[in-house]
Amino acid sequence: MIKLLFFSFMLLESIAIFPQGIKKITAPQVSCNGTADDVPGIYTDHTQPKYGFSLKGTPAEKAVMMKNLIAIEKLEEASRKDFKLTGCVARVSFARTDNRTYGKNIYAGYGYELGVYQYVCHVTEHVPKIVDEYRTVFRVGTNPYLSPGGANVVGTGEFYTKYGNPVYDISDEVKSKYPNRVSQYFSEQYLLTGRSDDYKNKHTDFLKLNNGNGFVENGWGDSRYKGISANSYYLIDRHYFITKPGVPLLIPVSRKQYLEDMLEYLEMEKANFELLNTKQLNDIANETAEWAKKKRDALQADKLAYPKFYEAKKAKLKDLLAKQKPEWLQKPAVVDQNTLLKESDKILEALGRFYDEEGEYKSALYVLNPAYFMGNNGQATKPLLIEVQFRYEISKDKGFSARLFDNWEKNFDIGALRKMVE
Fold first, then answer.
1. How confident is the model at residue 3 (pLDDT cuts 50, 70, 90)?
2. Cβ atoms of 413 and 97 closer than 8 Å
3. Whole-number mean pLDDT of the chain?
């Protein structure tokens, strides 16, 4: 009897995690004229996703993910208890994404998605049809990707020794051999990319995400300042970070740390230059064309010029560390975010310059806060951070999207998500 019950449980779990017999959904066959926005909608939970899904992991990990995802699904369903869905099909699916590395710990990425497919009224048949792709979507991502932005730090990434000469960048081969704390930096802009386009309030929006307080939106452009046109179409992406209370995700990088980490980075840059310069010379060693001669000359000139650049950069870093007062070194590192600054002389000139005046403000640098990203005690599926996204549409013929979003904003219990990360 026990074996039979166990087998039945495993079979049910298998069906829940790997949905079978996915049914094609058809819109109600009622007459319509021009619009199908008032036609009764259809909702399907995770047992009838459009494309199926799987949650990869150990049996224990699958069980935890399934439990958390169903809890999220129930929260969305509860938010619509007094809401009439019309003009669309709303279909739930779950997903297991890549692992996330936060500091030294690895967490499982997984998420809930409610894709909303609009009804349109067929021009000749005058019955509702379901569009094949969604634009309106509600997502809850557990342990989301934060996007480390080392390449956005001025003086790292691609560079020339002299403008017009060959370009050098950091290869994966070199990265694997040398420590590289700079590549773990975050800039405010990098955290906001794809999440907020409010260019007048970048720092405020960054703090909302970093502290898990409030939401940011992407897609308004200048309309948020100039006003919304009644005849325009807007696809707005709203994002929340659900975090542990009172603990920021990221903490500022001090000038001292930045300078020390750039010294470390410089050794990697040197090894990379020597590797790439030699490789490019070898690649054209037997070429006799005029272009090859010019490139060899440029590469040979770089070979002579780089050691001087390397020594000058190293000397400037060490000089700043040795001569600046402790209070100056402990201030936040705010750097130029001109990622096109590649010429070695300009990089050297900008190195160690920090932007104190508001008018000069470029981008503050941050790293993961160790106090937030603590050990998971072997619980890879534990929600350490949750990102909520609701992408909604504003348009004359997208009433279904605005209604669903407005109801969600009023009735969805975000506080219940906060309990999952506490």
1. very low
2. no
3. 87
Spatial contact of 314 and 265, defined as CB atoms under 8 Å apart = no
CA dist 409 and 85 (Å) reads 15
Mean pLDDT of 128-146: 95
Q: Are residues 113 and 239 in the same domain?
A: yes
Buried b / exposed e over 373-390, threshold 16 CB at 10 Å, is beebeeebbbbbbbbbbb
Q: Which two tokens stand for residue 350?
A: 């900008």
Q: 10 pLDDT band (50/70/90 cuts)?
A: very low
In which domain, by residue range, is 329 found?
A: 150-185+250-368
As given in the structure block, the two tokens for residue 41 are: 């909608």
Judge whether residue 22 has pLDDT over 80. no
Looking at the structure, do residues 255 and 240 belong to the same domain, yes or no? Answer: no
- 9, pLDDT greater than 80: no
Question: 101-113 pLDDT, tens per residue?
Answer: 887 788 999 999 9
DSSP characters over 96-150: EEEEEEETTEEEEEEEEEEEEEEEEE-TTT-SEEE-SS-SEEEEEEES------G
Distance CA 239, CA 5 (A): 43
pLDDT of residue 53: 83
Residue 4: band (very low, low, confident or very high) from pLDDT cuts 50, 70, 90: very low
Listed in sequence order, the residues at least 6 apart from 310 whose beta carbon sits closer than 8 Å to its beta carbon are: 266, 269, 270, 273
Burial class (CB in 10 A: 0-12, 13-18, 19+), 171: middle
CB atoms under 10 Å from CB of 194, counted, come to: 11
Q: Are residues 60 and 98 in the same domain?
A: yes
- In this structure, are 327 and 344 located in the same domain? yes
Q: Give the count of alpha carbons within 13 A of 117, CB side only.
A: 18
